[in-house]
Amino acid sequence: MKQQQYNTLKDQITPKIPILINCLKAFVVGGLICSIGQAISFLYMIFFDFTEKTVGNPTVATMVFLAMLLTGFGQYRKLGQFAGAGSAVPVTGFGNAVISAAIEHRSEGLVLGVGGNMFKLAGSVILFGVVSAFFVALIKLILVSVGVASW
Amino acid sequence: MRTIGFSFLLAFVVGGIICVIGQLIMNIGKLTPGHTLSILVVAGAILDGLNLYEPLINLAGAGATVPITSFGNSLTHGALAEAEKHGWIGVLTGMFEVTSSGISAAIIFGFIAALIFKPKGKVD
């Protein structure tokens, strides 16, 4: 079979991805997760002295805690199968990636298993976040020193 | 002053839209979730460099702080704040100033989860 024939055959056989439905699911689930985050933000603003500027940090930490419970009881994977990016893009998805890797590799020991594999999936997010933040800050610092931009 | 219901609506819509962008990157670009999240983090960092992410947080609250884009945003934010005060070295030292909560929470809860939960295996 030639390469081209193979490709056409592959396109015929591979099921079409229902992009519209996937996007709708991602929108609803992602929106709901953010609404839960909003509710947690309000709780922190009412019962603790956080402001709208500072409330992001405790909210994120609480969301990761909820992700731990859902991941530990095996529910987050089911949510992920249904919602796709809707459950992966919120910070709970980041938490799930770290926590599920930690649980998965527990049998290999705390140091080499949990410690070594915890960031197996989520490490790339940290790497590219830090590297891009470094370059963005560097470029902005240069632009400000030259006098082109302001803080 | 915005009503509480309206801020929930904004958080829902903005958070949902960011997730749809992620879904489109995954489906149309045919990339893994790992690639998608990395792209979104970089996008968040760049948006903060252009001073565009802060207005989004003011508008949508948790709709902008809960998606992973806010991770890139707060990394850049810390680096910029320190760079403003201390110059070059601040770019390095300020990086984790703002964003520590997400990573430390993930590490701590991941460790606790590894101690108390058993692997669940395949769902199906």
Oligomer: heterodimer
The biggest beta sheet of chain A reads: none
Overall helicity of chain A: over 70%
Number of domains of chain B: 1
* Whole-number mean pLDDT of chain B: 86
Question: What structural category arises from helix and sheet content of chain B?
Answer: mainly alpha
Organism (chain A): Solibacillus merdavium
Keywords (chain A): Membrane, Transmembrane, Transmembrane helix
InterPro entries (chain A): Spore_V_AC, SpoVA
Protein name (chain A): Stage V sporulation protein AC
Structural descriptors:
heterodimer, A: 151 residues, mainly alpha, 2 domains, B: 124 residues, 7 helices, globular, Stage V sporulation protein AC (chain A), membrane (chain A)
What does this structure look like?
- The complex is a heterodimer of chains A (151) and B (124).
- Chain A has 151 residues and is an all-alpha fold.
- Chain A folds into two domains: 3-120, no CATH class; 123-151.
- Helix content of chain A is 77%, strand content 0%.
- Chain B is mainly α.
- Chain B is 77% helix and 0% strand.
- Chain B has helices at residues 4-28, 33-49, 53-60, 62-65, 69-86, 88-93, 100-116.
- In chain B, helix 1 crosses helix 2 (33-49) and helix 2 (33-49) runs parallel beside helix 5.
- Chain B is globular and about 50 Å long.
- The N and C termini of chain B lie far apart (48 Å).
- The model of chain B has no long low-confidence stretch (mean pLDDT 86).
- The interface between A and B is large, with 83 and 83 residues.
